[in-house]
Amino acid sequence: MNFQYWDPEIEKLPRNELESLQLNKLKTEIEISLRAPFYKERLSKNGIKSADDIRTLEDLNRIPFTTKNDLRDGFPYGFLAIARDEVIRLHSSSGTTGTPTVIYFSRQDIKNWAGFMARCIYGAGCTKTDVFQNMITYGLFTGGLGFHQGGEEVGMLVIPAGAGNTTRQFKMMQDYGTTVLHATPSFLLHLETKMKEAGVERSSLSIKKAFGGAEPYSEDTRKRIETLLKVDVYNSYGLSEMNGPGVAFECQCKDGLHIWEDGYIAEIVNPDTLEPVKDGETGELILTILCREATPILRYRTRDLTSFYTEPCACGRTHRKLHRITGRSDDMLIINGVNVFPSQIEEVIMAMKEVGNNYLIVVEKDGALDKLTVKTEVSAEIFMDDSRPLNALREKIKDTLQASISINPKVELHESGSLPISEGKAVRVKDNRPRDV
Ligand code: AMP
Ligand code: ZN
Fold it and tell me: Which of these, 12, 57, 399, 423, has the minimum number of CB atoms within 10 Å of its CB?
């Protein structure tokens, strides 16, 4: 295979040199962290008062893990390590209830991120001759702008299409001769269904490759998309706390995701004991960012479950590979690429006095896409035989939930006491999507 490298020197750097580069970058990141109020306190409590206190990569173990709650507690400026007027952008978590998590970027941070994204896109075989249709949500979500910048850095013609509206997407593919797509894997599958419905001929499209990310999917799903859409699909992994996409990506071998170790230190731990797992075993991914000056984050608990490959890759890159993410060590749901915690839904519905005590969250497949149904009991005062107040309540719950979690759910109302009550710990979530990861 003819592999192409965006930055061959770094991508194929011998392991010992890569590790000393990591150590140097970690020291810089520690220096940066000591300027952020949160880490100033946390690091000094753990005896780290300057970068000189970090002598080897193992010294990272002296730093406690950082959690999503820490980021929330630090809202809005607790993690900011540079002057406010050096910040040129922010991105924030998808949920809108409770305190958001926010990440700030300096000009250099944006440049670094675009560089990592370019490395991913070029490494997957794209070049400046490609036309790239970015069919993912723009805005506070990092997937849109992250891929956009990376595509421009490579020199592709980037179409900021955004998510949804398949008719418009097909039209753009035909008008501009799109060769590369980016979307959630469920949207890629949905696209194929819609293509048949709309009578769009595959031969009228020039698409060759697609990047699929933002949600877990199996090897079988990849193969299905590849067969149905006749494109090469590459897995893309990232999270907003670590910039967004561009953390780990598949090379042309399409067998595991290279994590860019000059930008991140990756550890895998047992989520219960928080001790490192044996090489090759599955556990929770912990990430330390080495490429950001505005918002340093050290030893972040991603909650994503994965394992390292133990063999080097045929492409010659020395950066280790991760197996595709198989799930989470918390209860976060990913619905069509949007992150939702059941607690966000509970917060909204339980704040309404018309809603009874029991509720159930059901997630299932509706064609290729995910469908969320929220079933709630209504309080005994509302009579189930008068449909007018019920319809109004259903709409109110739907609208409030949509505003809060950015997903339009189906809402079902049930008579008080009619939803099943489980013995022991309440089962509030039924995720009926096939689990073939
Ligand atoms: P966000 O911060 O909104 O970008 O969401 C990040 C989360 O999405 C990650 O922590 C993962 O749980 C999930 N995610 C992103 N990309 C992938 C992927 N390729 N495979 C599985 N899960 C993913
Ligand atoms: Zn490779």
Answer: 423
Neighbours of 80 (CB within 10 A): 22
Mutate to test the pocket of ligand 1, among 141, 334, 340 (most ligand atoms within 8 A of CB): 334
What was the pLDDT predicted at 424?
A: 62
| Whether residue 215 has its Cβ less than 6 Å from ligand 1 | yes
Q: Where are the beta strands (DSSP E) in 170-224?
A: 180-183, 209-213
The ligand whose atoms approach the alpha carbon of 244 most closely is 1
Query: Are the CB atoms for 91 and 140 separated by under 8 Å?
Result: yes
Give the rounded distance of the alpha carbon of 267 from its chain centre. Answer: 18
The closest of 72, 66, 73 to 33, measured between CA atoms, is 66
Q: What is the pLDDT of residues 241-289, one digit of tens each?
A: 999 999 999 999 999 999 999 999 999 999 999 999 999 999 999 999 9
- Cis peptide, bond prior to residue 76, ω within 30 of zero: yes
| Mutational pocket test of ligand 1: of 71, 102, 215, 243, the residue with most ligand atoms within 8 Å of the beta carbon | 215
Is the CB of 213 inside a 6 Å radius of any atom of ligand 1?
yes
Q: Report the nearest-CA residue for atom 21 of ligand 1.
A: 216
Phi then psi for residue 269, to 5 deg, are -125, 160
216 lines ligand 1 (CB under 6 A): yes
CA 73 centroid distance within chain: 21
Ligand 1 atom 4 nearest Cα:
239
Output phi, psi for 11, to 5 deg: -65, -25
Q: How far apart are CA 104 and CA 96, in angstroms?
A: 18
Nearest to 418 by CA among 329, 357, 341: 357
